Amino acid sequence: MVADTSRLAPEKVVGAELIDIYRKVDEGTRLSFEDGVRLFNTRNLTAVGYLANIVRERRHGAKTFFVRNQHINYTNICNKFCKFCSFYAKKGGPAPYEMTLEQVRERLMWHREVPLTEIHMVGGINPRLPYSYYMDLVRIVKEVRPGVHVKAFTAVELVQIAQIGKVSLDQALADLIEAGLDSLPGGGIEILSDRVHHELFGKKLNGDEWKDVARAASKLGLKQYATMLYGHIETVEERVDHLVQLRELQDETGHFLTMTPLCFHPEATELEHIEPPTAELDLRAIAVSRLMLDNFDHIKSFWIMNSVPVTQMALWYGADDADGLVHEYEITYKEGEFGNKKQMLTYDNMVRMIEEVHREPVERDSLYRQIESPTAAAKTRLTPIPLAR
Prior knowledge:
Blueprint: H1 10-27, H2 33-41, H3 45-60, E1 63-67, E2 69-73, H4 101-110, E3 118-122, H5 131-144, E4 149-152, H6 155-165, H7 169-179, E5 183-184, H8 194-200, H9 207-219, E6 223-230, H10 236-253, E7 256-263, H11 279-292, E8 298-299, H12 303-306, H13 308-314, E9 321-324, H14 347-355, E10 360-364, E11 370-372
């Protein structure tokens, strides 16, 4: 059960150590880098959650958003060899695969009875896939699921697509938009630190290159999601700097929809010696993200990676979004690997998860337009979207 601190005087919750930050939050003043470091380092986690909840409820009240979505990971062949990744095909690891367009069609048909509104597609950097494949990927989703929102391709994938097509990034984005691309997911940079980039994912884009892709997307009107991978070798200061850089980029472009802190899972990676994530760190990362990112409308708790119970707590620690039903998520681990880690929620499960912690479930689309606020009558209503034959 979440502790109710709403009736306590702020000084009783935050204490002398954080009362100056409370005053900034109360006044709506932007927090500094130093404030962010203090929020990560303080032992008073309850105070950090209390402060984040002030901002969360100021923006959204009790509303908690979710989406009906499906993930498709079209290939696990990748030439970047990131040390934190368990997904890409390697000796002694996952067998390599690349989906044909017909296999993608088949995946889309698996859930034809569910009225999905979003298809999320990402994959490895596979140099064998031609330029036309990516366009056809988007087109086939639109063909099978008319009207669905296609959120696809991280920044590093977009650069690969442009290179394989021997076109500019702007042209590749324009071609994908014409094919039906609607928005971009987060990912592709993990954390904006040159040191961590060199140590863990040196073959991928660096921070400046990642930000250039974001700028290009914003100029073409594409909305984008942001992420931060934490809990590996990064320092507290690097986490806060990541958030500050995202905040500055959002000041410039205004095109980010939400921020999702993602906890690192060391299983089956080159960093297996690192301790797995804790609920304490998950809640703190979400809360500090909410407090530092004053120009982001939404903070998401990704229940796949931090668990349903932690996501329920996170709804009182700054998160206003619980992601979605998430059919077929394979990036962190496949169903059944490393224990029983369920990777799909039914509509009723999602609503119950939110209501159990006294929050209001609100179904949204990918751009955060409200579809409906579920009622007892609506919870079990399923109206399939017409599918192409």
